[in-house]
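New to this. Explain these tokens.
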Amino acid sequence: MRKQVLSVLALSAAMASAQASTLLSEGFDNVNGLAAQGWVFTNNSVNPLYKWQQGADGVYPSQSGGPTSYVTANAESSRNGSSGTAGKIENWLITKTFSLSQSFQLSFYAASELFGIFADSLEVRVSTGGSASATSNFTRLLVSINPNGDVDGAPNGWTRYTATFDGLGGNASGRLAFVYKGDGASANFIALDTLDVSTVPEPASYALIALGLVGAAAAQRRRKA
């Protein structure tokens, strides 16, 4: 009986360790406070002006939380002050560093214009360079929204996107980047909310747990016999 109890406890511990854990979670309640947490804002647009900003009350509703609880970038990413000259937009929002040793699933909500006359694009990229935040390090593309820059090609209203990244093992770490793209003359805005990055238990973990459950059941049948 004691061995059976120990087996059940061991299996319970294995199942608990195989559960997903949160690596990164952000609701964008305070965009101005992200830099202090290790996030990086980099605007590589032609004639850059505004970086990613806090959502605005009465302009667009948040997906979750308070009325301004989202982060946004818009056509004003590329402007030349009073002249108003606009150009190519490439506005980066880079997360803080987190572990890449285990596979993870990315989930977030994105929204864009509601009028069907603008062209906005968004890329989500991953860097495996540890704490480095140089945009050249983000070589792996995870999600591409409206990659061709089509008019009305971005989501009109909050839409959930997901992607999975295979873990690198060891002590690997890196960052995610959300890259707003477009042209200052034809873009409008992009908004993000409810970001979640959670580990994905390895298939081997489930296989071992399944084998253990089968073995425990077989042992119980033998005892009863």
Remarks:
- Residues 109 and 160 are 4 Å apart (CA to CA).
